[in-house]
Write a structure and sequence with these properties.
The structure is a single chain. The protein is built from ten helices and two strands; from the N terminus they run αααααααβααβα. The protein is mainly α. It has a two-stranded antiparallel ribbon with strand order 1-2. The longest helix is centred in the last third of the chain and has 38 residues. The model has no long low-confidence stretch (mean pLDDT about 80).
């Protein structure tokens, strides 16, 4: 008896449809059909799965001898998609170390806050308008006033206000992310400790 004939024989003995066998072995129904017709042969790992599904050894499946009649049904092998997973392993990992996500979020927020603060400082200095700049732009002679009074700051230019607003927004967003990260870390840390 050839391999394709044995696959067909054992499938019918187990009272399995091609779809059911395909689900247990982890292939398509068309693959099982090709195996039974002799158009293709299963890979080694599929032979092991076939033998398990039929409740026989791989030697019995591959031998050329006629199969012996069995009275007992093989134990059905669940399809791969419904194989049980280890419940709780991912949940346990998240519960135990999830607070680190809050720490990473807080560190990112601290970095963004730092960038916003540096940008605000730099733009404030860059776009600072002094009395001398203002008087020079309106045509006044700077020799009329003492030098010390000329260096007094009048504020920030209009263009500088735009950049300062953007830098302030970055600073605020960073601070919010920093606070959210700290809160998340604290909550997840406490929650993880309650589960232990």
């Amino acid at each position: 008896m050839t391999l394709n004939e044995k696959i067909l024989y054992y499938r019918k003995q187990a009272k399995l449809s091609q779809e059911e066998l395909a689900g247990q072995v982890g292939v398509s129904r068309q693959a099982v059909s090709k195996w039974e017709l002799g158009d293709a042969t299963p890979d080694v790992d599929k032979l092991v799965a076939l033998a398990r599904a039929f409740g026989v050894t791989t030697d019995e499946l591959l031998s050329s001898q006629e199969p012996t009649a069995k009275t007992s049904q093989p134990d059905p092998v669940p399809p791969r998609s419904s194989a049980p997973h280890r419940p709780g392993s991912l949940e346990r990992l998240i519960r135990r170390y999830g607070w680190l996500a809050g720490i990473y979020l807080a560190l990112g927020g601290a970095g963004i806050t730092l960038v916003g603060a540096l940008a605000r400082f730099a733009f404030g200095r860059m776009f600072q308008v002094t009395v001398e700049d203002y008087l020079g732009s309106v045509g006044w002679d700077s020799t009329l006033f003492p030098q010390q009074s000329m260096e007094m700051s009048m504020g920030v230019s209009a263009m500088g206000e735009v950049f300062l607003t953007i830098a302030t927004a970055i600073l605020v967003v960073g601070a919010v992310i920093l606070i959210a990260g700290v809160l998340l870390a604290v909550v997840l840390y406490r929650k993880g400790r309650k589960g232990d």
